[in-house]
Task: inverse folding
């Protein structure tokens, strides 16, 4: 950019009608109508593009987010419905100097919070000397008693923090909330950034916008630096796919190359924390914790937790694992704590807060209660010990003097009856930032979430953040809870950022790192994903064969045989698009969802797309030929998924499990089909139906013209090692994949599962079409499942 | 009085349980005021691969063990000799219940015995309006805290029916209260809920109750398994008192304390038993014999 950042700026078409709201500071424009520093290149660019081009630009960002599978779930939304990511393409611009000021304030606050939490679990001076009321801690569910007296292994409780900040009417920044307990949003900030680079590629080339990669790189290095065993792993400790920010956790895990670990993946063994992998137990000594502390260990914390790991608290107590952040730091999110931090800052940091927090009063103190009661019209009053805003949790609260939630009686009665449990917070108004709406820019209130990571050289602040933009012009912070958008935050310096993106990092000659161990649970999910996808496909072929015969030539005995086969899989032949088929595919999607961190975005999208099509079609499909045609469409879609996986998935252990799952399911289904339909007693037309279900009509016709016999069918669908539909082909595949897996585990040795696979493959190879009678087929089928058990025993303990 | 106590917890599984990690809280507490532990021994069978002993936040004796190999049965055996001191008589008056909130408000103590830990809802004793109302109806402003505690405890004893078949270890306290029945665990949780409901700090005590009644006295309920009762804080002078609502008596020479916590969840005798793999049978056997001297 040749233009200086502070150059006076001509009002452009887009900003001509833009006016800050009365009494509300605006990020882009000052009261005189002049652009603030840093905004001019963006505004010029937007004006120059014009509405059509902008629609196209913004579309690229939205498309990227949709393709990446970013979705949004409203906090406290019981429906769990995922909405499209509400991306507002116009970023919030922060001049570097302004951002520096925020950094200073937030770093001081991070150090203050570290000192407070260290005191609450250690010396306890704050309470003993009366700087903090004992009730706020002793009755606080986030104050975890097992952590009292435990020093974190790393020496620090806090490693990764988020702060929600907003700008008040006087132009100063305020801290609105402290997020210490597995704060979310950094991954979303990264996704917003990627989307923004798609929308504004020229600006990212030419404007000195600070890059985010260095922040993540720095934190990843810091996490690795916390290990005491160079062979141990660093994981993200996740509550699993049911949590509303699981997508983000999987995204960060993929981006930083960290293991995504659930409580079930971890085990305390021989005085060490380990992860279950397909190679056995491997040490883990650093966890980036996204699971709430209360759920971390069912033995010493919440006894009903199924998300934690038994004995984890002992590992913490013994200094065997570093948690980033330490268990128990959730106590710092307590709403009422902000009432005491300004004074505690003077005490512990030797000076006032550089960045004030929203004025807060704890109603457990008489004078403070009286103040809140007298000023309730200017306050939000809610539970003192909550870590979320009451309007997020549904708790009874009052805003601007009006009771909300299931409240009975007057505000004053409520306040005096529950005083010690309540706090009041000043209602704040926010600054506005431009959002693009109907071809023009409009001012909308905003808050920014900023992120700090601890490194050996001090706190690193992400040069950017995650902005929330209000849905209406109402600038009261409280209005932000209704809908709204999210946006990227650009920290704009004077010099171009030379830091490289983590995605294209070049560091001399790269040596390929050794493959990381595959968690046993991930292996299990990939295996079942393979099985369910293959089962869905097999069922589609069977339904198609059945429905196609319904209207025309199908003999009643043959239809009965096929119906029995389908019903064995829970498929009703009455339904043109059977619910049982939808359920099978839903199981595949479920498995894929468990392993979002190691599954390609496109593959997942293809699977979801197939599921959506099926749900849509299920409303209109008719029995008979229509159903048969629909199955054809679905088969082509599922082939698309298989193609993506086959062409794109890296041939690591995970792929082997997916492949084995598919091959095993196909082998078993084909054997079952042959048992029922290639039986000498089977009704007329069964052999042709078996060939059709086995998708081998063309090759059969070429070899045997129109003459099908039991021998030709058995040969083609069981014994022919060149036919990818034949059992032998699948058993060969399984044997090779198992050999590769066991080689990883115990080089040069035959294992139980290896023997089973080889035995299975050899047994079939020794058969002839004549010897492979019903009993032999049934025997083989039993062997396939016996192999499946051995596979489980070996790799998925 | 000196007792020899034996407790055996045993678990049998239909199908062998894979390794597991367990937390045991059955070794009596040596609190230096109500009782003294002369000796205690804790043994696990089969022999654990790892075994750890420590004191939890409330100074209870915890033992964690780990079994790697698949096993069909686990048993934990405690043998202890404990001297229980007679309880001192309660003074007639004390802190008035109306003055309790202000006293608690001024407290700067969050140590293991601090009353503030025991004032709000806990995992097994959520806030319950019915319990609070029940207690409120028994209390007048001119009552001392200990009079209120005794009034609530005795009223519950009359209100509730002891029924070892009616509830399980996982029955919510609120349900047991509505149905007016249960065992010592239910009685204690309900009394805790009632006391906290009117602002009195109340804790859960697990322990043992003398098995053999003294000559001529009736046998007390709950003696064939571990017992539970309630601890309530009556102000800075009197401190904690312990009341057994299942038997309508103050805890005394017949009661030996194992552990104290906010509710059963803090002091469950054993946690982490396999719940998923097939059916399991569990048994608890207690013997508590006075030692003649």
Result:
């Amino acid at each position: 950019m040749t233009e200086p950042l502070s150059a006076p700026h001509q009002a452009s078409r887009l900003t001509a009608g833009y006016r800050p709201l009365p009494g509300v500071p605006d990020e882009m424009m000052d009261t005189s109508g002049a652009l603030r520093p840093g905004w001019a290149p963006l505004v010029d660019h937007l004006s120059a593009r014009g509405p059509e081009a902008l629609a196209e630009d913004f579309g690229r960002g939205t498309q990227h987010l949709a393709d990446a599978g970013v979705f949004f779930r409203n906090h406290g939304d019981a429906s769990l419905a995922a909405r499209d990511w509400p991306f507002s393409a116009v970023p919030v611009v922060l001049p570097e100097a302004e951002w520096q000021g925020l950094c200073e304030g937030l770093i001081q606050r991070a150090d203050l919070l570290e000192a407070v939490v260290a005191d609450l679990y250690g010396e306890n001076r704050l309470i003993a000397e009366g700087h903090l009321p004992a009730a706020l801690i002793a009755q606080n569910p986030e104050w975890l008693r097992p952590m009292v007296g435990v020093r974190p292994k790393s020496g620090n409780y806090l490693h990764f923090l988020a702060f929600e900040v907003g700008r008040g009417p006087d132009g100063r920044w305020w801290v609105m909330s402290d997020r210490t307990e597995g704060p979310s949003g950094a991954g979303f900030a990264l996704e917003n950034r990627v989307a923004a680079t798609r929308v504004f590629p020229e600006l990212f080339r030419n404007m000195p916008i600070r890059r985010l990669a260095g922040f993540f790189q720095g934190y990843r290095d810091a996490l690795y630096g916390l290990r005491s065993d160079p062979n141990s792993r660093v994981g993200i400790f996740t509550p699993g796919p049911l949590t509303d920010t699981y997508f983000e956790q999987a995204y960060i895990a993929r981006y930083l190359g960290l293991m995504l670990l659930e409580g079930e993946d971890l085990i305390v063994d021989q005085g060490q924390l380990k992860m279950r992998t397909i190679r056995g137990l491997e040490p883990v000594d650093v966890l980036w914790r996204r699971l709430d502390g209360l759920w971390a260990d069912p033995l010493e914390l919440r006894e009903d937790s199924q998300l934690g790991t038994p004995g984890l608290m002992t590992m913490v107590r013994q200094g065997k694992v570093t948690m980033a952040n330490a268990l128990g730091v959730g106590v710092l999110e307590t709403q009422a704590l902000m009432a005491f931090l300004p004074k505690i800052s003077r005490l512990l940091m030797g000076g006032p807060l550089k960045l004030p927090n929203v004025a807060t009063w704890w109603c457990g103190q008489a004078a403070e209660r009286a103040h809140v009661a007298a000023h309730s019209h200017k306050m939000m009053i809610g539970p003192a010990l909550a870590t979320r805003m009451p309007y997020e949790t549904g708790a009874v609260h009052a805003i601007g003097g009006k009771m909300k939630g299931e409240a009975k009686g007057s505000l004053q009665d409520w306040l005096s009856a529950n005083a010690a449990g309540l706090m009041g917070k000043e209602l704040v108004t926010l600054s506005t930032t431009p959002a693009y709406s109907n071809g023009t820019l409009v001012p909308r209130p905003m808050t920014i979430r900023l992120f700090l990571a601890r490194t050996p050289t001090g706190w690193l602040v992400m040069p950017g953040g995650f902005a929330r933009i209000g849905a209406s012009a109402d600038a009261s912070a409280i209005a932000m809870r209704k809908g709204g958008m999210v946006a990227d935050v650009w920290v704009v310096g004077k010099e171009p950022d030379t830091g490289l993106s983590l995605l294209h990092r070049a560091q001399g000659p790269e040596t390929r790192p050794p493959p990381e161990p595959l968690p046993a649970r991930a292996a299990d999910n990939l295996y079942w994903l393979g099985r369910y996808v293959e089962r869905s496909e097999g069922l589609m072929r069977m339904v198609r064969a059945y429905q196609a015969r319904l209207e025309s030539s199908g003999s009643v005995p043959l239809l009965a045989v096929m119906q029995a086969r389908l019903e064995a899989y829970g498929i009703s032949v009455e339904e043109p698009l059977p619910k049982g088929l939808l359920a099978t595919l839903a199981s595949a999607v479920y498995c894929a969802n468990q392993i979002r961190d190691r599954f390609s975005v496109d593959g997942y999208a293809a699977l979801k797309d197939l599921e959506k099509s099926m749900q849509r079609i299920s409303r209109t499909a008719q029995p008979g030929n229509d159903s048969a045609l629909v199955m054809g469409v679905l088969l082509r879609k599922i082939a698309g998924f298989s193609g993506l996986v086959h062409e794109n998935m890296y041939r690591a252990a995970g792929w082997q499990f997916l492949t084995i799952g598919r091959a095993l399911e196909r082998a078993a289904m084909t054997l079952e089909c042959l048992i029922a339909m290639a039986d000498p007693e089977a009704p007329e037309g069964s052999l042709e139906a078996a060939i059709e279900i086995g998708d081998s009509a063309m090759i059969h016709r070429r070899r045997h013209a129109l003459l099908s016999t039991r021998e030709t069918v058995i040969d083609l669908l069981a014994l022919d090692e060149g036919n990818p539909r034949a059992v032998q082909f699948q058993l060969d595949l399984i044997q090779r994949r198992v050999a590769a897996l066991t080689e990883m585990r115990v080089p040069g040795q035959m294992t139980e599962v290896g023997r089973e696979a080889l035995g299975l493959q050899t047994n079939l190879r020794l058969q002839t079409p004549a010897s492979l009678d019903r009993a032999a087929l049934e025997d083989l089928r039993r062997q396939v499942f016996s192999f499946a058990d051995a596979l489980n025993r070996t790799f998925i303990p | 009085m000196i007792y020899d106590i034996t407790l055996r917890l045993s678990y049998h599984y239909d199908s062998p349980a894979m390794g597991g990690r367990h937390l045991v809280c059955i070794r009596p507490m040596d609190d230096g005021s109500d009782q003294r532990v002369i000796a205690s021994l804790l043994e696990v069978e089969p022999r654990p691969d790892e075994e750890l002993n420590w004191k939890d936040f409330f100074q209870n004796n915890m033992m964690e063990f780990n079994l790697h190999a698949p096993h069909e049965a686990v048993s934990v055996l405690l043998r202890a000799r404990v001297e229980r001191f007679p309880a001192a008589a309660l003074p007639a008056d004390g802190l008035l219940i109306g003055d309790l909130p202000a006293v608690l408000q001024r407290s700067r103590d969050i140590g293991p015995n601090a009353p503030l830990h025991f004032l709000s809802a806990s995992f097994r004793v959520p806030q319950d309006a019915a319990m609070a109302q029940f207690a409120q109806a028994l209390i007048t402003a001119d009552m001392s805290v200990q009079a209120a505690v005794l009034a609530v405890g005795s009223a519950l004893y009359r209100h509730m029916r002891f029924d070892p078949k009616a509830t399980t270890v996982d029955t919510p306290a609120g349900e047991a209260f509505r149905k007016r029945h249960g065992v010592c665990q239910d009685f204690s949780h309900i009394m805790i809920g009632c006391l906290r409901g009117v602002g009195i700090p109340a804790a859960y005590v697990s322990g043992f109750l003398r098995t053999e009644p003294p000559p001529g006295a009736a046998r007390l309920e709950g003696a064939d398994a571990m017992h539970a009762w309630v601890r309530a804080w009556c102000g800075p002078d009197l401190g904690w008192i312990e009341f057994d609502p299942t038997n309508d008596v103050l805890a005394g020479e017949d009661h030996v304390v194992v552990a104290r916590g906010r509710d059963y969840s803090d002091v469950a005798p054993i946690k982490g038993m396999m719940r998923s793999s097939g059916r399991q049978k569990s048994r608890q056997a207690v013997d508590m014999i006075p030692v003649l001297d």
User: Anything to note?
Assistant: The interface with chain A takes residues 20-23, 49-50, 52, 54, 56-58, 64, 66, 68, 104-105, 107-110, 114, 116-117, 119-120, 123, 265, 268, 271-272 of chain B (CB under 8 Å). The longest strand of chain B covers residues 2-17. The helical segments of chain B are 100-106, 129-136, 145-159, 173-179, 184-197, 264-267. The domain at 2-84+269-290 of chain B is CATH 2.60.40.2250 (Immunoglobulin-like).
